[in-house]
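Page 37, continued from 36.
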């Protein structure tokens, strides 16, 4: 055995995932020891604590210890080839988005937890967050697959958490079926790339790309991997699962999937695509155009909030892809700035919806938001702010993000993609603005105070409203802070741009 340098027994990029996984185990054990009505609140408190410790671990350095390398003559995949997990700003940004989304998802979902098994939801949420963090920081293809499977298996169960709801069971089955196919394609692609490059390290694969050139096995493997990761990003034509899964899941789970999964999948796609040959990278622009078209046109016919946000997410995933194929510094900055703005806007919409109608629901019909500003001025008006930002209204972060993406597309010689973005934004403006008009106008006679159908067999009514009151205060603060941030980014985008510039710089 020969010494091969220094590593960390508890490296900072791995620490959040370890903390989240350990938190999931603690939550399940604590449920067994808990008794009475306080058991659910205790489980939620432990989940919040695990998220807080995971966030703290992002800034705590690991302990360096000497490690032994593999024996001489070991196979190439056993040789050290750099870090297995990234220590750059991109992984930190990914963890930040995932942890914030998980915290808000927990606040939205807490009133609707099963009183008999409250730990199941919290543990699955923590495991999904751990998988997303691993996916966003993985530097090897094995790490990409491990992170993707951990988050996928957890999300399948989270979508079906309300087992008595047949819509949730159906959505989870569809998600599982299509997700299994995507995972199989990803694994087959990894095998093809490993067979060509002889390594699972993205750094080594990128270095060997010049020698392999346009090898069919090499290019084909990357194309299959892009399909697997693109499925999680809900890029068209791999988007079929998204509308049904978003609608079948609880509102908190939908909010978590719509933001955290996108952040993790985008980070993984960026790392994988940077190592891919040029022949495979060009496909990203075609997926961007198709996603913008499918997402914006599909949103026109939606009458339910979660399905509308699903198609909106498909279009917005296409926006992010605009900046990738040439991998310029400006393009990556634009994509990350828009990703951060989109996370604020999207989470804000779901938080506002939860404030307007707490508790589990079978549907959040758009007509049910009529007169929301009169019923709940804070929730109604912040939802208006988020929707206008998604439209791309000036003086919002959404507007600045779209301008940066258009500029990136023009500089990279893809003006046609800038046209697609402008057309998609114009089409999506119709359902967004129609919902805004419903929110601010007076409620008509014959429309109920909430207009939303409660989920049969699940808790609801005034008792649910009382149980949700403490969490509603947290959601109110979060929604107000996010609305202010969205407006500030439209006037002063430099803080988020500065963070985006650090994304691929190794952290010391």
């Amino acid at each position: 055995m020969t010494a091969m340098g220094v590593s960390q027994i508890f490296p900072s990029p791995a620490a959040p995932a370890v903390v989240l996984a350990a938190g999931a185990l603690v939550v399940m054990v604590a449920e067994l020891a808990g008794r009475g009505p306080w058991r659910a609140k205790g489980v939620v408190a432990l989940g919040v604590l695990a998220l807080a410790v995971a966030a703290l671990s992002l800034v705590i350095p690991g302990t360096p210890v000497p490690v032994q390398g593999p024996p001489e003559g070991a196979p190439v995949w056993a040789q050290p080839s750099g870090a297995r997990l990234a220590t750059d700003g991109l992984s930190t940004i990914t963890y930040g988005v995932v942890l914030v989304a998980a915290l808000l998802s927990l606040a939205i979902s807490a009133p609707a937890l099963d009183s008999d098994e409250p730990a199941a939801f919290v543990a699955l949420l923590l495991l999904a967050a751990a998988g997303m963090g691993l996916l966003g920081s993985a530097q090897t293809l094995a790490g990409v697959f491990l992170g993707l499977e951990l988050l996928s298996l957890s999300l399948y169960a989270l979508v079906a958490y309300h087992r008595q709801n047949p819509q949730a069971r159906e959505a989870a089955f569809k998600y599982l079926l299509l997700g299994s196919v995507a995972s199989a394609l990803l694994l087959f692609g990894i095998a093809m790339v490993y067979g060509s490059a002889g390594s699972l390290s993205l750094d080594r694969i990128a270095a060997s790309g010049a020698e392999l050139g346009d090898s069919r096995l090499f290019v084909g493997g990357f194309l299959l991997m892009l399909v697997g990761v693109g499925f999680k990003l809900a890029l068209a034509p791999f988007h079929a699962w998204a509308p049904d899964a978003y609608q079948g899941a609880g509102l908190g789970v939908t909010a978590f999937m719509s933001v955290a999964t996108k952040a993790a999948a985008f980070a993984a796609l960026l790392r994988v695509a940077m190592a891919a040959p040029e022949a495979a990278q060009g496909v990203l622009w075609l997926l961007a155009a198709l996603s913008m078209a499918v997402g914006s046109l599909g949103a026109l016919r939606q009458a339910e909030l979660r399905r509308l946000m699903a198609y909106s997410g498909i279009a917005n995933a296409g926006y992010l892809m605009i900046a990738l194929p040439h991998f310029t510094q400006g393009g990556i900055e634009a994509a990350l700035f828009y990703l951060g703005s989109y996370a604020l806007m999207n989470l804000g919409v779901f938080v506002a919806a939860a404030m307007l109608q707490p508790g589990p629901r079978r549907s959040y019909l758009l007509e049910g938001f009529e007169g929301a500003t009169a019923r709940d001025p804070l929730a109604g008006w912040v939802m208006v702010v988020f929707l206008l930002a998604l439209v791309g209204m000036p003086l919002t972060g959404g507007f600045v993000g779209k301008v940066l993406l258009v500029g990136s597309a023009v500089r990279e010689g893809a003006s046609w993609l800038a046209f697609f973005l402008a057309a998609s934004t114009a089409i999506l403006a119709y359902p967004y603005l129609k919902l805004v008009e419903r929110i601010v106008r007076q409620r008509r006679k014959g429309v109920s105070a909430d207009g939303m159908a409660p989920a049969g067999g699940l808790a609801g009514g005034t008792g649910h409203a009382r149980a949700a009151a403490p969490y509603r205060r947290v959601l109110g603060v979060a929604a107000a802070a996010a609305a202010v941030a969205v407006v500030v980014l439209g006037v002063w985008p430099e803080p988020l741009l500065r963070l985006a510039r650090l994304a691929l710089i190794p952290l010391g």
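The chain has a mean pLDDT of 84. Flag for discussion at group meeting. The CA atoms of residues 112 and 459 lie 7 Å apart.
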